[in-house]
Structure formats: C-alpha cells, structure tokens
UniProtKB/TrEMBL annotation, chain A:
Gene3D superfamilies with a match to the protein in the record: Glutamine Phosphoribosylpyrophosphate, subunit 1, domain 1 (3.60.20.10)
PROSITE patterns named in the record: PROTEASOME_ALPHA_1, PROTEASOME_ALPHA_2
Cell membrane found in the keyword field: no
Protein name according to UniProt: Proteasome subunit alpha type
Subcellular location: Cytoplasm; Nucleus
Biological process terms in GO annotation: ubiquitin-dependent protein catabolic process
Family: Belongs to the peptidase T1A family.
PANTHER family, alphabetized: PROTEASOME SUBUNIT ALPHA/BETA (PTHR11599)
Keyword Nucleus: yes
Pfam family, one: Proteasome
Species name: Canna indica
Recorded superkingdom: Eukaryota
Automatic annotation (TrEMBL), chain B:
Family (UniProt): Belongs to the peptidase T1A family.
Protein name, as recorded: Proteasome subunit alpha type
SMART domains assigned to the protein according to its UniProt record, in alphabetical order: Proteasome_A_N
InterPro entries, alphabetized: Ntn_hydrolases_N (IPR029055), Proteasome_alpha (IPR050115), Proteasome_alpha-type (IPR023332), Proteasome_asu_N (IPR000426), Proteasome_sua/b (IPR001353), Proteasome_subunit_alpha6 (IPR034642)
Biological-process GO terms, alphabetical: ubiquitin-dependent protein catabolic process
One Pfam short name: Proteasome
Record organism: Canna indica (Indian-shot)
Main subcellular location: cytoplasm
Keywords: Cytoplasm, Nucleus, Proteasome
Domain Proteasome alpha-type subunits, residue spans: 9-31
Record function comment: The proteasome is a multicatalytic proteinase complex which is characterized by its ability to cleave peptides with Arg, Phe, Tyr, Leu, and Glu adjacent to the leaving group at neutral or slightly basic pH. The proteasome has an ATP-dependent proteolytic activity.
Record bears the keyword Cytoplasm: yes
Amino acid sequence: MGDSQYSFSLTTFSPSGKLVQIEHALMAVGSGQTSLGIKAANGVVIATEKKLPSILVDETSVQKIQLMTTNIGVVYSGMGPDSRVLVRKSRKQAQQYYRLYKEPIPVTQLVRETAAVMQEFTQSGGVRPFGVSLLVAGYDDNGPQLFQVDPSGSYFSWKASAMGKNVSNAKTFLEKRYTDDMELDDAVHTAILTLKEGYFL
Amino acid sequence: MSRGTGAGYDRHITIFSPEGRLYQVEYAFKAVKASGITSIGVRGKDSVCVVTQKKVPDKLLDQTSVTHLFPITKYLGLLATGMTADARSLVQQARNEAAEFRFKWGYEMPVDVFAKWIADKSQVYTQHAYMRPLGIVAMILGIDEEKGPQLFKCDPAGHFFGHKATSAGLKEQEAINFLEKKMKNDPAFSYEETVQTAISALQSVLQEDFKATEIEVGVVRKEDPVFRVLSTEEIDEHLTAISERD
C-alpha cells in the first residue's frame, strides 16, 4: 500500500526498547473525551461525553457510539476520524464472517480482528498507529462482554473500564461502585454518574 | 522519554508528536487560514446558503475562472476554503465518486454520505505518510430527501459535522461567534433570511460592505433542490435588501 518510497515502518524501536509512536498515540487517546463501559450481569453499557465544539453543530449528525453488528457496539476515545476507519473495517469483517459461517460473529473474534488491524498499522510501511482506544460491548452465546482495544493492538476483557481524559478518577470511581451482580439499569446509572464526576474537572 | 521520536520527523510527516498531536494536520489548518479568505454557511428551514469572498489579485485575471464554489452533481455543492489547487483536485475526485454512486446504486448520493466520503479520504492522508493532508476546509450543501436541507463541514483532520451555521477561513472564529448569537434560539429562516444572514455575517466580520462582484453565493432550496450559484444581479438584490433593512 502507498508509495514505495515509504515501504519502511515509521514505528520503530527506541534504544530503550519502546515503540514511541504507540506511546504518543496513547497520549492522543488520553486527551480525548472520556468514555467508559460497564459489564452487568444481564448486559453491557458503554457511554461517552458528546461535547460539541459549538451550538451551531447539528448534534443529530454526530454519533459517537456506533454499531459493528446488531449485537456489538463500540465507543472510542481519541481521534474520531481514525475510529471511523476501524468501524468500517470491523463491519466488513463481521459480514464476511457471517457469509462464511452463516452465524453472527462472536464478540471475541471481532475484537481480535479489529485489534489485528490496529497492530498492522504499528508495523506496516508508511503509516502511523491509530489514535484511538476502543471499548467494544457485545452480547453473544458467552453472555455480555466488554473489551478495550488500544492503539498497539493489545486488547483485554474488562468488567468495567474508562478511557480518555480524567481516566484515573473515573476508574477509581468505577472500582468503588462495581459489583459482579449489577443489573443493567444500575450499570447505566453508574455510567452516567461516573461521567458526571469528571464533568466539572 | 523526552527525546523519544529520535528522527524528529513529526513536523514533516503525519506521525505522532510526543504529546500525541499531528503537527502536519495542524499546519494544514493554518494553510486554510493563510489563503486570506473567509467563508460562511447557513442552513434555514428549507434552504442552505454558502457565501465566500472572491478576491481577484490581478486585474488581468479572468474573473470567471476564479472560484471556490463547485457544483459536484446537479444537487450537491461544495465550497472549498483554502488552497485552490488542493480544492480542484478534491472536486475532480468528488465529482467522479458522486457520479459512480449514482450509477452503482441508482439514486443520488445523499449529502451526509458524500461528506463522510470526503472526511474519510482526508483521514487517510492523516495516517499515511506518503500523502500530505489537503489544505482545505470543505462545506457541502444539499437537500436530503428525508432530512431536508443539510450543511456539512469537512476539515483536514477528517472530522465532519452537520451544521446549522458555520464558517471557515481567516475570520472563522469571529464569524462563528456572530452566528452563534443569531442562531441561539433555533430560528427557522426563510430563503431570503438565510441568504441575508450569511451575507451580513460576512460583512460584519470583515467589516466592509461588499459589491456583488466581490462575493460568491451558492444556494440549494427545498422547492428547487438544484445547487445554484447566484448571478451578480441576484446578489445585488440581496445586498440592497440588507442595506435597506439596516
């Protein structure tokens, strides 16, 4: 892909063994609007701030939380345009899976493939890593699931997680409030409270 | 971590800076302002109007060839603020894309789908090192079959939003402040009010009264969803109406 003049990776190791472009990408995520997710006993909730730059913006034209399939949704923190690319690729992958297996794609599989795309962009020639972290929420045969995928392409399953600005306060708040047997309504309520916590800071 | 990048190319190509910023994208925004032009778009109840300055730097230039307002299809218009050459390149690709969409799917490309296409293209330039971001902010206008009049703005970073009113270029912030006051109570402007709000916003922000040859105006109306560039006579009528009103 791209010009052959750029067939070398822009993300290379520093002398201390770090991939600094990925660290910088995480900084971009950390300055994005807060988003969070909570896994309840009977469902998953994801939420995010939707602060628009001006009252002139038509807020119905903006949708930060998007569907990847009918039972898998995603929210991001970081660079909106980058998240659109990932959503588009994931939707296609989900449909390809369905075409092959005649079954809706399990959440873990879709997360794995999305993460693989993100990893590709940390190694391929002439591209930079994605400046977003994704929270993928889905419900399949294994019950409710919540995954966080980072710019490096690593992903973990979470009971509750937050990303973006004010993440440490949000996570502390979630740790205090989270219980394994939470119902979905409680989880939604907690999610909103957590977002409100960060609003005045 | 302080000398992390090593090569220090973060200002030359679109890779991350240590703070997680993309300098090339930020510089692209500056290039839009450097063109010295300001543009304004306003969405009314059943029409959309965009207005931009028409600066002809040399009297020997053929004025009719100086334009920032491009019809993409019969129903979609694009106002490009910034580097003219980048604008023409985008317009060429956009016209092709809109025509292919019509051919492939059998109906006109909707405004938001078109805006998304432009924004996604801009995003690619922010992620692949071999192409720089385009130095333009694009305002798209059209009438959507279901949602009515639509005005979208796409920027070099790949963001796009629908707007009730917006601005781009040199005096962008001043214009947005002006428009926020005007649109605060969600007014439903008629066609004449829409055009006059857009033109008077530009006049107020640049603090000069225009002649009809110094601005370009493009409109779409629900009752006639074709994208039209207003003629000098029509612009004159509106300018007269504004000065009589004040």
